[in-house]
Amino acid sequence: MGIRKKRNFRRKFKINNKKNKELLQSLSLILVLSFVVGGIYTVYENKNYEKKIAKIESLKIEEEKIKFIKDIEKEAESSYKEYGVLPSITISQAILESGWGQSELTKISNNLFGIKADERWKGENVEVATSENYSDEVMAKFRKYNSLNDSIRDHAKFLKENPRYAEHGLFKGKDYKSQAQALEDAGYSTKKNEQGEAIYADMLIDLIERYNLNLID
Fold first, then answer.
1. Number of domains in the chain
2. CATH code for the domain in which residue 91 is found
3. Residues forming the active site
4. Counting C-beta atoms within 10 Å of the first and last residue's C-beta, which end of the chain has fewer, N or C?
């Protein structure tokens, strides 16, 4: 091979070698970008999937809550006609006191309102651990009912027979806000916020307005 041919060959080899390197670099970059984009897409898809699952779970929870309201709605209306406690108040109290019917007490006794079994109670009772003074846990006896409907009726009867509720205007209240406030004023609950302010009435009103329970009244 002549000198000129050798030089041409070397020049072509260098050019081809340079092109090969550039091609390899391009391919490597494409592969890296593919992994990066693929990873981002996977993360995006996973987040979308998680959001969908969360939405489905949220819808299930809401459906269960609506079912709970429907399950006790009729008895709350019937109880109102006899005792004068608005259905929206009865239902919101049941929600708050029983955790939408999911509390341990409600599950084993159908007791929606946490009414204790004192010497006046002649029916069955159950013993459940309860908190006193925020930290001390003690065993206490609670009323046991055959059904949630029995619990609702006994709750209204309990309020009617206890004079302090009438004294604070529970049965004179013709709307849910005034009845909620009367329950708080009569000391039905001692729930307070961090500032030490009573919040039971506000909690009931919030539930009533969030789920449009006042439409049942």
1. 1
2. 1.10.530.10
3. 132, 154
4. N
